[in-house]
Amino acid sequence: MTTVRDIDARGAQHCETTALGVLLRHQGLDLSEPMLFGLGSGLSFIYWDSKNMGFPFLGGRVKPFDLTRNLAAGLGLELLVQETTSPRRGWENVVASIDDGHPVGLQLDSFYLDYFGSKVHFGGHVVAMYGYDDQNAYLVDTDQQGGAVSTSLTSLAQARAARGPMTAKHRSFTLTAAKGLPSPQGQIIPAITACADAFLNPPIANLGHRGIEKAGTLVRTWFQRTDDPQRDLPQAALLMEEAGTGGALFRNIYRDFLAECAQLVDSGRLRTGHELYSEAACLWTEVAALVTKAGESGDAQCLVQAGTVLHDLSRIEREAMQVLSRLGN
């Protein structure tokens, strides 16, 4: 068995920040999960629906791997990303890093992982790998999936080779603090304002505060969008609350990020943003509960109420991001 020495295999709530935490702690940089998420300008929103989808999807963060790129750029970390269409070359890339004493991040489809509880295809899943032997790979995943876990080399190969939405070609990556350990405090305001600007100025109506407004209108039609509301509506709510989001569609994590920042940066605008996202987090959990109740009871009025709350959320988050976008002034 070959493993990276002195690995800190702590899991966290979200997959990408879990993997980033493992890689950065091995570099000597130990940041909280909310700080990793926030410095990566990770918060967003998307209402995603198409003819080939069984049911609409609500997403609360930026695209897979954008968070990693944002974090590396902001902290001045060296991000080495390797992709290939060759399974053999993809495996060699991973082994070379681990043999050299460095954990490696992998983007893959969680459906194939032996330990994964929910067998749903998700090609944007990220894990940290720190060891291997003749049969198994040793990974760090979220607390929900077990933290330090293992999966067969066969299942790992299938997960990395998968194709479909959000997948990458045997993507592996490492992070290196090339010029000493960076201080996160100087990156707080740029990361927050970049996130706010993207949220306030989405290129299409499905994203940012406009996407939340659109969701508030369309959620009322969800009974017409499914032939099995008892399955699809509670599943949609579950994804908002428990699918690695930290609850409230990542709003709990961003709320905690802003609270941590307020201890480091004395700013009334930052405190106001934190208060508004504390309110938003509670309301997102309320939306999930209403969607679940609608699916279980068949009561369309629950979806009407969820739509009303979503319209309120669009306003509250827009106000929060408008305040936070002025932090640098």
UniProtKB/TrEMBL annotation:
<dbReference type="InterPro" id="IPR026935">
    <property type="entry name" value="BtrH_N"/>
</dbReference>
<dbReference type="Pfam" id="PF16169">
    <property type="entry name" value="DUF4872"/>
</dbReference>
<dbReference type="Pfam" id="PF14399">
    <property type="entry name" value="BtrH_N"/>
</dbReference>
<feature type="domain" description="DUF4872">
    <location>
        <begin position="155"/>
        <end position="324"/>
    </location>
</feature>
<dbReference type="InterPro" id="IPR032369">
    <property type="entry name" value="DUF4872"/>
</dbReference>
<protein>
    <recommendedName>
        <fullName>Lantibiotic ABC transporter</fullName>
    </recommendedName>
</protein>
<feature type="domain" description="Butirosin biosynthesis protein H N-terminal">
    <location>
        <begin position="14"/>
        <end position="142"/>
    </location>
</feature>
